Amino acid sequence: MAEKATITLLTDFGLKDPYVAEMKAVILSICPDATLVDITHEIPKYDVKMGAYLLDQSVPYFTGRTVHLAVVDPGVGGDRRPIAIESGSAFLVGPDNGLLIPAAEKLGLKHVYQIENLLYLPSKISRTFHGRDIFAPVAGHLARGMSPINLGREISNYRKISFPKPKITSRKITGEVIYIDSFGSIVTNISAKLLDQANVKYGATLKVVWGKIRPKRVKFLENYSLAQTGTLLATVGGGGFMEISTNRADAAKKFKVRRGMKVEVSL
Amino acid sequence: MAEKATITLLTDFGLKDPYVAEMKAVILSICPDATLVDITHEIPKYDVKMGAYLLDQSVPYFTGRTVHLAVVDPGVGGDRRPIAIESGSAFLVGPDNGLLIPAAEKLGLKHVYQIENLLYLPSKISRTFHGRDIFAPVAGHLARGMSPINLGREISNYRKISFPKPKITSRKITGEVIYIDSFGSIVTNISAKLLDQANVKYGATLKVVWGKIRPKRVKFLENYSLAQTGTLLATVGGGGFMEISTNRADAAKKFKVRRGMKVEVSL
Amino acid sequence: MAEKATITLLTDFGLKDPYVAEMKAVILSICPDATLVDITHEIPKYDVKMGAYLLDQSVPYFTGRTVHLAVVDPGVGGDRRPIAIESGSAFLVGPDNGLLIPAAEKLGLKHVYQIENLLYLPSKISRTFHGRDIFAPVAGHLARGMSPINLGREISNYRKISFPKPKITSRKITGEVIYIDSFGSIVTNISAKLLDQANVKYGATLKVVWGKIRPKRVKFLENYSLAQTGTLLATVGGGGFMEISTNRADAAKKFKVRRGMKVEVSL
């Protein structure tokens, strides 16, 4: 009997439909002791890249035996393969469309297996809901202690996606808006480490440009409450990246900032 | 000590209010080992039929010792009775308004009991929240291993509801839109089995009519990704019923399809 | 080894972002056996008072060993202190902004500790996400059985908030709309006990005024279904307070009632 395992779930299914519950039912039928944790089910429909980003953000905090089950899967039932990945002491299960890769690489990707052994799958597999019929049972078996080598052949030609990297020159850092959270914080791909390398200190005033909007002068502060209510600030968010926020207000809505917009920080 | 049990929860309470958490607190105070699984709390308010449909869809996937607690209960505190049902190896607990019946029948309805034994209920029972004060404690006791015969008399005049059945002639199948999911898939009550009996094969072109909208020609395909993005298709959804979808777009919104609309498939 | 503990979570984080899951990951890394129960994550952003109200409503139903983790924290990273409270047999963990106090007082507040011992915290603490980096690990350690005296000094100058109390004269009760739930029920701060003291009996007709809207005559009834569909009624909600509702319709929306409005009940 393996140590009690956690299974996380991340999908674009929402919570209105019974789809997430059906996956959990299948998992518990195989591994009744698993602890189930929802990461989020509100990935915008079919947005594999957003799913990959949020999975990548979350996985480092799960330190015990964990199986990450992720389903953002517009190609379900087609020729995209179902895969399971061994990474560090964790497993990741989902479609071969890049969704799992950034998180798997962050945890230390070891092996990627194509799921093809029908022994671990239900006798009837729908062509439209592999989350329940393929990924959930595999996650349950891995959580129970099954070795992933039983699932199928190891592959190396799995589909990859990656996130844009910021560029740094002596005069500016050029990054991108990578996420907008529910507080309206504008999360960039510019890491605290990069700001440190560029010698940006707390208290500095940054000139920030996004899209075609004329430059904003924002203070780089240690936390939201150091700015006056409604005032724009730059800070380091919980994920370790620069975000542009407004104390107690929705910065992204106010400035009509969308994901993918370029962000320039003048040094 | 009975085997570890799962308790599922389905309500029209939403997740903004603390009502679901209060039910879980009561359950855990009686059965601390129960695994709690939310089916959904986003049933449209008071929509008993929709609750019955989603409960019916979900229950087959829970295979271990399970208690299904469902509360869509506009008649709370009035003369509708609280009931508990033994079905197969599962129990269902909720109001006697039909909500539990389709699921209970699918699992193999054995006995329906009126909940009347105050021994298993808190000393103070509100008249407006039986989910917390009657159904949750009963679910907790059943999960812990109590026999349902302790709850009260067995009844047979419980309230039933059923779902419309499709009609089939030599020329067409006439069904109904029974659910629209969060992807905008238009789920009908026409089962894959019925399509098979009518000799409808993957690749066929179906003529589909709903409401007063003029006929659409849609291909019957094995999965969403076989249609071009934005193109209407018919397929078999995860529940085993024909659904009309659009690859990567919201078919129900685009065609203004609502639940209850008639769907005709010409053969 | 302590008895299996429940950890509840209440935040204004919503469920779109991975923030709640990151907190759960940290908790499970410290206390893998904890049962996690979400109270709600849909507190309006930064609304400490609403968070305090819903926490206060929920806590009495958790009767076993419980740690309540609550984060509505606009002052994160500033000079507001992180605190842990021992109340009855439960603990409460969160920011020192009043959020925890009404619930803690209801459970029987014993000791309030400032969290300052770095031994129980991760080596790297972000300045913008104490929910994950301070409150979650402390909740995990308390759930595991650690004594709160290890966290830091006991304090008495913690920040308090309280809810408005109704006024009663011989002719009327003057209360306030304290919450509007997802059914549109208008929950007041007038308790069933107060109505009883004022000799208000079920079946009575009350004259209710809110804001500047002219008086409504509403019947005080034992449950929603005793009123005709769409008709306004007064009843006692699940929390034990008078609420004004409409049978099967949204009373708050129909009458444009908002939280904080004065409610007068003529006797």
Secondary structure blueprint with pairings:
Three copies of one chain form a homotrimer.
Chain A: E1 6-11, H1 19-30, E2 35-40, H2 48-58, E3 66-71, E4 82-87, E5 90-95, H3 101-107, E6 109-114, H4 130-144, E7 167-168, E8 172-180, E9 186-191, H5 192-197, E10 205-210, E11 213-220, E12 232-236, E13 241-246, H6 251-254, E14 262-266
Parallel strand pairs in A: 1-2, 1-3, 3-5, 11-12
Antiparallel strand pairs in A: 4-5, 4-6, 7-8, 8-9, 8-14, 9-13, 10-11, 10-14, 12-13
Greatest interface and its participating residue counts: A-B, 30 and 33 residues
Query: CA-to-CA gap between the ends of chain A?
Result: 56 Å
The value of Rg of chain A in angstroms is 21 Å
H/I helix tally of chain A: 6
Largest beta-sheet details of chain A: 7 strands, mixed, barrel
User: How would you describe the oligomerization state of the chains in this entry?
Assistant: homotrimer
Shape of chain A: elongated
Q: How does the helix and strand content of chain A classify structurally?
A: alpha+beta
Q: How many beta strands in the DSSP annotation of chain A? A: 14
> Averaged pLDDT of chain A, please?
95
